[in-house]
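stage 2 :: seqdesign
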């Protein structure tokens, strides 16, 4: 049975061994409390071997400081498993900050434009390294 959680503006689900989180609509840093807690709960209570964020439908109103804080937080949370982030071209600079923070901590991250390329990348990595 698939595990899933959703509320307005985001959805989290487990697809195989991959935690997928989709975010949409206007987002501010104050809105991260419920999604953040849910995301951490899924990470702590499931056998996740990959993370996929789809933020193409989201429009963020973050300051540079808020983006830096979010990037560091995601770097700490996601560095232990391959993490793919699907975004729009106008989100590239912000997503690059997150990828950098994951990689600084020894993790693997990919910024991409499609779900298929994200899943192919994660599936290839998790098939060759099944212990995560």
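stage 2 :: out
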């Amino acid at each position: 049975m698939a595990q899933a959680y959703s509320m307005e503006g985001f959805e989290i689900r487990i697809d195989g061994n991959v935690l997928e989180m989709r975010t949409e609509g206007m987002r501010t840093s104050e809105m991260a409390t419920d999604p953040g807690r849910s995301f951490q709960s899924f990470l702590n209570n499931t056998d996740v071997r990959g993370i996929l964020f789809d933020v193409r439908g989201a429009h963020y109103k973050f300051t540079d400081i808020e983006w830096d804080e979010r990037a560091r937080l995601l770097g700490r949370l996601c560095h232990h498993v391959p993490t793919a982030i699907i975004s729009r071209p106008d989100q590239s600079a912000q997503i690059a900050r997150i990828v950098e923070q994951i990689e600084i901590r020894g993790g693997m991250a990919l910024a991409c434009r499609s779900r298929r390329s994200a899943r192919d990348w994660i599936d290839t990595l998790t098939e060759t390294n099944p212990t995560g």
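stage 3 :: structure notes
- The mean pLDDT is 89.
- The chain has one domain: 4-128.
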